Recover the amino acids of this structure.
């Protein structure tokens, strides 16, 4: 409900701003004493209105979506018709968590899970859906049961397994061309929406936004045994 109220307020304010600037631009740009600045205002107002309409359309689709869970996956029902996501067809899950604050005081939390199939089809499961936290836990649990064995097998075969921004192999953890050998790896922690990878003596080897990580739940399991206790 909080996200709906915030969305209505933001969309209304954005639409009003775009309409006002468009009106001012149209009113003054054609006058003899008008100047080129009003032409910019006119187009800026039109652009804001277009963006506002697009955001409203996306929000309507999001709030109209309904998810039904089954043993082999889930089905998304929306204006575009039903779309099935079998656990065995899911390639990756991205997680995101945002805290809304008013006067620096947290008032609500927004959660999002982006699920992608092998064929590239993706769906966003976010706070527009009722019970998204519970739904997200089911998605993470079921996809872990499918993805973890696949990743483990690839590691045992000597492959490098990507997890979005980072990848792991028998040699260690890799970010772009930089490698952190497992002998130097001491663990990970999270703050401000980022994952911090620690090297020897706890120094920060890298920080990666969680939203750039794919299958983070699987990655944490695979590197858990390599973390010193």
């Amino acid at each position: 409900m909080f996200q709906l109220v915030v969305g209505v307020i933001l969309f209304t304010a954005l639409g009003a701003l775009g309409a006002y600037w468009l009106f001012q631009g149209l009113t003054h740009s054609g006058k003899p004493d008008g100047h080129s600045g009003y032409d910019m205002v006119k187009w800026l107002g039109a652009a804001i209105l277009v963006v506002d309409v697009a955001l409203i359309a996306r929000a309507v689709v999001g709030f109209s979506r309904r998810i039904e869970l089954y043993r082999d996956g889930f089905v998304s029902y929306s204006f575009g018709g039903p779309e099935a996501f079998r656990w065995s067809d899911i390639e990756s899950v991205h997680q995101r968590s945002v805290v809304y604050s008013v006067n620096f005081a947290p008032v609500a939390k927004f959660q999002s899970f982006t699920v992608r199939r092998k064929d590239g089809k993706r769906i966003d499961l976010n706070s527009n859906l009722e019970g998204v936290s519970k739904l997200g836990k089911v998605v993470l649990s079921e996809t872990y049961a499918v993805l973890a064995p696949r990743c483990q097998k690839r590691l045992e075969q000597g492959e490098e397994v990507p997890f979005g921004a980072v990848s792991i192999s028998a040699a260690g953890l890799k970010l772009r061309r930089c490698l952190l050998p497992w002998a130097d790896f001491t663990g990970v922690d999270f703050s401000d929406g980022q994952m911090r990878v620690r090297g020897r003596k706890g120094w920060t080897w890298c920080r990666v936004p969680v939203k750039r990580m794919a299958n983070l739940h699987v990655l944490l399991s695979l590197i858990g045994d390599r973390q010193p206790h």
